[in-house]
Specification:
Strand content: under 5%
Number of domains: 2
Number of strands: 0
Helix content: 55-70%
Order of helices and strands: HHHHHHHHH
Structural class: mainly alpha
Oligomer: single chain
Radius of gyration: 16 Å
Length: 155
Amino acid sequence: MSEKILKAICLMVDENDLTEIELTRESLELKLVRQGFSSDSISYVLDWIANLNQDVPKSPAALAGKDSFRTFTDEELDLIDPEFLNYIMKIESMKLINQDERELILDKLKLIDNEDLSEDSMRFLIAMILFGTKNHNNDFLFAHAHEPEILKTLN
């Protein structure tokens, strides 16, 4: 996912109106077309966001013991920036996310091109992923609440 597509997400999620997202897919598409985004980018972003609102799946990680550790697959290493993988492991070790949330984040990040994303952009995406789950985890969101500039950096 390029910075341009991330900007499209930010346009849809107005930081002043996070609780009142009652826009239809059609009105979002129209808004993004007016901003100059391609229909392929718009469809990709809207589908990606639509799939965020799902329960955190029970992963094999949930069966792991407290002394177990996570190794990354070749696919994960190819698709997700190593710096981001380290960051994800760090926030898990800080108990800001659990194993199931980590797996959900990895699954969603594998779907996007994240090579050109900044760390702030990645944090924003992780917050979106966590907030998009039905039983979202506020620990990560509160830990980064002091960083409201993130949306401003994406404009």
